[in-house]
Amino acid sequence: MRTYSLILTILFCSGKQVDSDWIDRTKHEGLNDIDYSELFETYCTEKNPENIKNTVGNLEQAKEYFDKTFKEDLNFAVLFVDNQNWNKYAFSPPPGMPQAHYQGNIVLGLGRSVMAMQAEQGLKQVPDSKLGILKQHFGEEINLDLFYRDALSLHELGHLYQFYKTGKGTQRHWLNEVFGNLCQVAAAKYLTTQDVFNRMDVYQLFLINSNQWGELKFKTLNQFEEDYFEVLRQGRNYGWYQTQFYLKAKELYSKFGDEFLNEFRDFLIDINPDKVGSMDDKELNELMINTFGSQVVEILEWRHDS
Length: 306
Ligand SMILES: [Zn+2]
Description:
The chain is mainly alpha-helical. The chain has a single domain (15-300), classed as Neutral Protease, domain 2 (Orthogonal Bundle). It is 59% helix and 6% strand. It has helices at residues 2-13, 15-20, 53-70, 86-89, 114-122, 132-138, 145-166, 173-190, 195-209, 221-226, 228-233, 235-270, 273-276, 281-292, 294-300; strands spanning 32-33, 41-44, 77-81, 99-100, 105-109. Strands 1-2-3-5-4 form a five-stranded mixed β-sheet, with helices on one face. α7 packs across α9 (195-209). Bound molecules: zinc ion. The site of zinc ion (ZN) has 4 residues, from α7 and α8.
């Protein structure tokens, strides 16, 4: 009898394993299992990486928030990858541009990433008098990994809660990115300190207000859809789109709060083209008005289409 109940216990406990099976473990080959968290899996190109405790701690709080908001207990893995090995584990350069794979993995930079250092280089042309606010939040020696790794890791984790339900099915990239930004804003607000939120806000407003972009090849939503990977490759142009999505996400979150994340995710699940086929803009717009109401659709309206 004792053996019998032991087997049953093992069977019940392993129920959790079914969920974790969505994680693509081939992506972990060659990485060290560093076991930095009890809430999710952590892998790294180094054996004893330093300076990622904060990122892991923030992700633990973010998981708590997303699990509660989306009523999940999501298993996932976080891969910390250094510059040299980036292309082996991530699908797009530059090293340190955080990304989420469809099957349970997010990839983050390690140490001083190329992504952050490139962006810091861009700040060299800005007069010192205008950098005060950034130094206040990112240190006298401005360290933008605090944005690209710490803040954006929340965004990527948000994508995993979406992909877990939708797989690769995507009706519009721009809706995915609004969702990612919404998750980023909401989780950052949930953290015990507002440091991460303040950094993401200060930095992105700085980029917008100081017009750091120069000439942009792409500006319309159609281009974002049709040339998505080309925009992604042109990191600067992708960054511009992201700041626009960020502003919308911030407004949506401040008006509609936590429950809106859930409604938005449900919407992404419902419009999955694998289920309902691809929709044209008119159809999609009508459905958004019916689902969210006109106030939301107004906020989402794109003002850079001409
Ligand atoms: Zn995203």
